[in-house]
Amino acid sequence: MTMMQKENPLPMELSDLESGRWPGRSECFRVALTIPLNGSAGIWAPSCISSAQVAVSELNKRNGIKGRKVQLIMINAAVEAEEPIEEIVNDLIELGAIDAIVGMHISAIRQRLSKVVRQRIPYVYTPLYEGGETTAGLFAIGETPAEQLGPALSWLQKIYRPRKWALIGNDYVWPRSSNYYAKNCLRTIGLEPVMETYVPFGTGNMSGLVERLDASGADAVLVSLVGQDAVNFNRAFGRQGLQRRMLRLSCAMEENGLLACGTGNLERLFSVSSYFGAVATDANAAFKERYHTLHGDAAPTLNALGQSTYEGMHYLSALLRDFGDVWHMKSSRDNLSVIHESGRSSGRNPSGARPPVYLARADGVQFCDFKLL
Predict the structure, then answer these.
(1) Which residues are 198's β-sheet partners?
(2) Which of 3, 39, 87, 216 has the CA that lies 20 to 30 A from 46?
(3) CA angle at 366 for the pair 365 and 367, rounded to the nearest 5°
(4) 3-class secondary-structure state, position 30
(5) DSSP class of residue 296?
């Protein structure tokens, strides 16, 4: 990956704090970029870092944030991280070492962090999530099941008419909440899932799970697995040959995961998101041009989760620019009209309208046939 480091300094590491190499508070506006760097969701890290760096480069060419140059501080937000992230973040806030958080991680981590941040610094949470976040000072900007899952289920039922759904996910709040929402949607048309199963993070061998899925008689499955766990599931799914008779729908399968699954394991797989790297919109074309101008053609694959860190950085900047210190009394439920840069949409609609959502089909290791829901 080619980096233009003069315009885009590399993120600082936590070890810099101990060595005394951190710049003074007046010199930089320090944003903790909390993303999974290892474990099941670590597959997302390169795209998330690279996308956030594009935003930092753009902000620093202007006036930074609050008139200060922006500096990213990398913090591992993986469930499998050795050190508790809430302790690290709390210590950094108390030391005055970070000024804000932009987080792209699972909801379980968000819930842990929200208990220690306590409105001391703004916290922008960027990926899709289960909805309902009302913590003051915390702004969740990703899609919810009502925006994403509901329309996708409705379209697949209309076109393919599956009669037996299975629900599979990792064992934490987002898959459970998404499946609860899905069950309510299915019940409105007289359907009950024939299987509902949750697995721990880092489940390497999915063969037994796939065999149970096969035996369930399902003709469609909602897959709410994260990162490498989703990859392992889809590989086992393909080995079992279930793609010949069973639909798959995912709200979190993105381009990196698609590449890792392999071409032969992706038939009849659908993903729903407000961003895909190949969506032909003016906003995405402009974002992709800036991304590859900074990082080159060999940059990490663009995807929804990476784009979200780009958008999260710009959302943070615009929030502080346009709403000043009001942020600590507001939250996601206030639906503030924060006008900001985004790869999902122009971001220029003062009504605060949400970005469009697309349903895509896997074709080889690419997404295609984008259906605006």
Answers:
(1) 169
(2) 87
(3) 135
(4) strand
(5) -
Distance of CA 274 to the CA centre of its chain: 11
Rounded to 5°, angle at Cα 355 from 155 and 258: 60
Q: How many CB atoms lie within 10 A of CB 251?
A: 23
| φ/ψ of residue 63, rounded to 5 | -130, 20
Pairing relationship of beta strands 358-363 and 269-273 according to DSSP bridges: antiparallel
369 class by beta-carbon count within 10 Å (0-12 exposed, 13-18 middle, 19+ buried): exposed
CATH superfamily placement of domain 15-143+280-334: Response regulator (3.40.50.2300)
CATH architecture of 149-277+358-372: 3-Layer(aba) Sandwich (3.40)
- What percent of the chain lies above the pLDDT cut of 70? 91
Residue bearing tokens 């969701």: 41
Confidence band, pLDDT 50/70/90 cuts, at residue 7? very low
Token look-up 């200060």 returns 68
For 307, other C-beta atoms within 10 Å of its C-beta total 29
Tokens of 344: 């999902």
Neighbours of 126 (CB within 10 A): 30
DSSP state of 40: T
pLDDT of residue 310 exceeding 70, the answer is yes
pLDDT at 23: 47
Closest CA to 230 of 212, 208, 256, 211: 256
For residue 29, the cross-strand partners are 70
59, 86, 60, 56: which is closest to 73 by C-alpha?
Answer: 56
